Amino acid sequence: MLWAWSGAVEIPRKSRREIARGLDLGDLAFSADRFMALLDRLWVLGAPFDPWTQDSGLRAQIRQHVFRNPGDWSTEYLFEQLGAFGAGDARFGKFLEGLVCADVVPDEPVQRHLAGTINQHLRPAGAELRETATDGGYPVFSVVSTRAGRTRQPKNLIFASPVKPDIRIINAVDNDIEIVTNADKVLVYDQPIGAGGLRWRDLQAWWKDTRHIGSDSEAKSTLYRRLIRSLPGNSPPQRNLFALYYEIYGAAVHDLPALLPEVWLHWDHKTVRERGPDALLRFRMDFLLLLPHGQRVVLEVDGLHHYASSDGKRPDPARYADGVRGDRDLKLSGYEVFRFGAAELHSRDQARNALQPFFADLFHRFEVSVPAASP
What we know:
It is a single chain. Helix content is 39%, strand content 16%. The protein is an alpha+beta fold. The chain folds into two domains: 13-145; 157-365, no CATH class. It has a four-stranded mixed beta sheet, sandwiched between helices. A hairpin with a 5-residue loop joins β8 (284-290) and β9. α3 (32-42) runs antiparallel to α6, α8 (200-210) packs across α9 and α10 (236-249) packs across α13 (348-365). The chain starts with 12 loop residues before the first helix and ends in a 10-residue tail after the last helix.
């Protein structure tokens, strides 16, 4: 009952075995006393007396076959003996967190190596060990779900629309929508989005097919121009962010996540004034990246309208609070939100200095491989 917590992140048995097979037991057993202390907290090892006696219980067997005679047991066999493969998700999650904890492995490079190895098998199952804090200078990792929107797949991706789209549902059973007016000002991507996320190559292929364009080069250039036209003309920071993403990565962007501008998150046929206190506030995102394994990243550029009054002359705490609340809602729905101040993206050179390391760190963080650009 102690571990029967229904809110734990689900980790399938297959993933657990793959994790065990991928881990080197020598890396885990960094320190005998520290490792045994972790096992004692989570598993039943037998009588708590001197473990260096000839006791035949699991505690003594671990001492014998993991520490005295390294190589006797594999990590998979140790997990089997502990009962890790059949344990509840909460207990197994705490076990993984403990394996990469500084209390067990007081070496940051080893911590990160172990977390990376574990994540190779966790992420396809919709979970990961994510760095969530620091403790005494060491990273702290927690098992979190990466299932955006509770594992739901995007159905109607409405983007590149600077104006509120005029939408009607033409088939409620199948969730089919129609753009009634100004269809040329709205893009709706309605193709399945797989485990690899939505890459530029996918978006370009869809554009080429739906617009009946003959060549890849023409599809690439016309799609790029269409997307950049959707950005606010009075927001150089947003335009710099969009243009520099594709400029920084050049030809390699073909296999990278597409940076989608002006993406509609909420839509209500009534206005905020008509809806009143129940109005949806965060109705549009500045930029959205759909990454592998269902991960969704939102990029926001904060200008005066995010924290100042409508005339831009004084702070507006209520407006700022609405934005913060919107961020919380997004994160609870499975999105990662990263904000830029408009001032740091205002000039081209300044924006490049901020964005180049950011995108490199972002892709490293989410393990998105950046292909080498063709010469």
